[in-house]
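To make the argument concrete, we let one protein speak, a sequence paired with a row of structure tokens, as a model reads it:
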Amino acid sequence: MNKIACIAFFLILPVCAVAQSMIGLSASSYSKAHFPGGDRMLCRLLDSLLEYPKIAFDSNIQGRIIVRFMVDETGTISEPKIVKSISPECDAEALRVVRAMPQWAPARYFGKPVRSVHFMPVLFKLE
């Protein structure tokens, strides 16, 4: 397989599952889950793990996949699911990479760890 011939663009859009139904959520009462080391370290990790699938590369398949996943109270990643697809091969690769991520720091609501949902775009682009 060809090592990354793509640009992985990672934008994490958190939504606290507990807080979704609550009105008046403030920045002081909620902190989002995050990857240890921040977004830059997350991008480095994913860049090192992500491989452009050979079939997609040979077929010139490009685009953005959106992966939804949960971060539980312990920071464990679970329930990864494709919500926007470009090809079965690229989708499988994006899911493999999300499953390979280490634990995150969990979201906190009034200081207590809570489960949260995240959406992560992954851009497959041939250069």
Remarks:
- The helical segments are 38-49, 54-58, 88-100.
- Confidence is low (pLDDT under 50) at residues 1-23.
